[in-house]
Amino acid sequence: MDVVAEVSQETGFAGESGADKIQERLQKRHQARVEDAERRKEAKESQSVAEEKGEYFYTTFNKERASIEELLSSCSGADRAAVTRTLEEATAKTVQLQKFLNDSMLFLKQYDLRQAQAALQKLQTSLTEIREEALPKKKFGFRARTKATDQVSAPVSATPLPDAGTPADSGSTKVDGAAAPEQCSFSNMDNVSLTKTAEEIQKRDVLLTHLTNCKVRLFGAPSTLHLKHIDSCEILCGPVSSSVFIDHCTNSTLAVPCQQLRTHNTTDTQVYLHVTSRAIIEDCRGVSFAPFSWSYPTLEEDFTVAGLDQDRNNWNQVDDFNWLAAGTPSPNWTVIPEVDRKTNWDP
């Protein structure tokens, strides 16, 4: 009897313990369902907010883009004074649109970001082309002095420049019987040192193309900088007020501050960068980045002229359009180790 009672007592205890465990499991399951429902609700709300932000961005961006395109279209057939005012307004709107895009990068999808950046680049290109085509006389006096400066200053370069006036005058047009260069440029040169002063390139578009084993120093604040087909060169540039476009660059070292950097088809190249938005690479490999470290006496003044914030530098925030794996670093670019970074740029 005592044995039966003991077993019965044990069985009853076991039964109570089993009921407690079942109740505990039910409570945990209920809590998990509540938490899951909360997560789903938050995710839905977050998605809704993102969609609302995205919809607002698309609507605003397209509206502003259409407004700029309309301004550029109105330049056709207008007098120089009207074109000047219109281009100034279009430039200001383009800068604001770039800032709006930069501020929206965090919630935009990669595809939508690329589409917006491509549209903005097209606007900037159109703006430059219309300015060069519609206002060939605007800087005639300044450009005439620039040409004279080229002829006088050419021998100052560390290495004699063959036909130094030719690349700077490439793409020029005739105005009242005199040459007026539309673009400040160097092209088709090997094994030379090249320099442009602030007076020569201030707020102008600069083009460097088909250079091999050259050292280039660009002082002042260009409007845009285009580098194409660059091989084994060292190129140092003052603050660029808008974008730097690099295409087919190899085995080179670049140093430049800018608002935006777009790099295509580039290999084995070091970039010492100050960028206030983000750097973008596409179809690149072996590209490495470090903070901008070149200095010259009027650098701070040129930062002010370019409108760049010296305290904001996103040099290591690089978007690789060929690498969309979230959470995994792109193998196409790296950060230059501090011990390997160049700080002395003197010859």
TrEMBL record:
What segment(s) does the record annotate as region Disordered? 1-50, 151-177
- Compartment list: Cytoplasm
Q: Which GO terms describe its molecular function?
A: tubulin binding
Assigned keywords, A-Z? Acetylation, Chaperone, Cytoplasm, Phosphoprotein
The record's InterPro entries line, in alphabetical order, gives:
C-CAP_CF_C-like, CAP/MinC_C, CARP_motif, TBCC, TBCC_N, TBCC_N_sf, Tubulin-bd_cofactor_C_dom
GO biological process per UniProt: post-chaperonin tubulin folding pathway; tubulin complex assembly
GO cellular component terms, alphabetically, are:
cytosol
Report if keyword Ubl conjugation is assigned.
no
Q: Extract the Pfam families matched here.
A: TBCC, TBCC_N
| Residue intervals of the C-CAP/cofactor C-like domain | 167-323
Q: Does the keyword Cell cycle apply?
A: no
Segments of skewed composition (Basic and acidic residues) = 18-50
Q: What binding partners and quaternary form does the record give? A: Supercomplex made of cofactors A to E. Cofactors A and D function by capturing and stabilizing tubulin in a quasi-native conformation. Cofactor E binds to the cofactor D-tubulin complex; interaction with cofactor C then causes the release of tubulin polypeptides that are committed to the native state.
Entry's family note? Belongs to the TBCC family.
> What is the purpose of this protein?
Tubulin-folding protein; involved in the final step of the tubulin folding pathway.
This chain's protein is named Tubulin-specific chaperone C
